[in-house]
Amino acid sequence: SQNVEQSEDWTISSRSSIVSSGNNETLPEVSRTTPTCHLCQSTYKDWEVSFENWGLIDAVLQPMNLCISCYKKSIPEQVDTNQIHIHEKAILHDYLFILMEYCESTLGEAIQNCDDDKILWNYFAQTVQGLAHLHTKDLIHRDIKPGNIFVHKGVVKIGDLGLATTMSKSNLSSPSSPFVTPTSSHDESQSQVDVLMTTYAGSVKSSRVGTFLYTAPEIESGRYNEACDVYALGILLVELFGKFTTGMERIDVLSKFRTSHSLSKTWVEAHPIQASLATKMIATNPTQRPSCGQIIGELIQLGLFGKEEAPNVEVLSTLVSGLTTQVSMLQSKLWKQEQETKRLRKLLEEHNADFSLY
C-alpha cells in the first residue's frame, strides 16, 4: 500500500479525478450527467467524504464511481469510520446565478398612469427615506433616477447600487471640508447618458458618473458628497408631477430646469410646493441644498408625510445630523468672517487708519 502523511482535514470526491495541465494537481471532475455506481449500477447523487487524523489508504485514493452504500462496504474493517463524514456534494455550474426580489414596476412605470398626488408624494417621501438610510451608512448612490427605483405593492425600494460609493466620515463632518473625494473604484466608469441625449465631443472625465439629466454639476469635479443624490431627487420630484406626454417634452423640461432652474409659469402655479422644494434641491452650491433629513422634516410640516408613514429613529437621526452639519458649517463660515475682520482691522491699524470712518 501507499504511505501518506496524516492530515487534519481531507476531502475526496465520489467522482473520478482529473489532472490539471498546470502543476499536476489532482482536481475532482465536475460532471453534467447523473453518475452510476460501477458496482451496483444504480444512479446516485454526487457526494464527497471528509475524514480527519488518519492515514490515507489505497482504497480511498483509488478513483471511485461508487454510491455511498458501496463506498461504505469498500472501507476496510480496521478503519475507524467514526471519523468519516459522508455528505452530498454541492453542484457546480459554469454560470453565476443571482436571486433578486421581484418588483411590480419601476418608479418610472408606476407614475405613468398615476394621477393621485397623495400617492406621488408617498413615493417621493419613501425614496427620500431610503436615501437617508444610505447616507447614514456613508454611501452615495450617484445614480438616482426613476429606472433605478422600484415599487412593489406600494413600497418603494432603491436599487442598482452599481455606481454607489463610500465617503470619509471625517471629511464629510468637517465644516471646512464639506466635500469628499469618493473612494470607489467605480470612478473609472464611463458616464451613462440618458435616452436621446448625446455627450459632448471629447473625452469624458472618469469622475463623471450617473445619468446625465440627474447628475449634479459638482460630479464633474470629482469632489462631492451626498448632496449630489439630493440634486437627483430634485429632478426626480419635477418628473414625478410632470405629466409629460412625450419623451422629448420630458427631456426639454428637465434639461431647462437643470440649466436655468426655471419651470413653466403654469406648472409652478399648479405645483407651488414641488417647484419651491425642487429648486432648493438643485441649488448650484451643494451646501445650499437641504439634506434628506431636512426634506423629510419639511414634508412633515407641510402635512405631506402622514403619521402612518412617520420616519423611523434612523431617519430622524439623519434629520438631526443634517441640521447639525448645517449649523457647524454656518459656525465655520462665521468664524472665517471674524478672522477676516480681525485681519482687516490689523491692516488698518498698521496704516494708522481712523476706524470712525468705517
From TrEMBL:
Annotated Protein kinase domain residues: 1-305
Region (Disordered): 1-31
GO cellular component assignments: cytoplasm; nucleus
Highest taxon of source: Eukaryota
Compositionally biased tracts (Low complexity): 12-21
GO biological process: negative regulation of translation
Polar residues bias: start-end ranges: 1-11, 22-31
The entry's keywords: ATP-binding, Kinase, Nucleotide-binding, Protein synthesis inhibitor, Transferase
Classification via InterPro entries: CC_SR_Kinase, Kinase-like_dom_sf, Prot_kinase_dom, Ser/Thr_kinase_AS
GO MF, one example: ATP binding
Cited Gene3D superfamilies: Transferase(Phosphotransferase) domain 1
PANTHER family, sorted: EUKARYOTIC TRANSLATION INITIATION FACTOR 2-ALPHA KINASE EIF2-ALPHA KINASE -RELATED
Similarity comment: Belongs to the protein kinase superfamily. Ser/Thr protein kinase family. GCN2 subfamily.
Record protein name field: Protein kinase domain-containing protein
Organism: Entomoneis paludosa
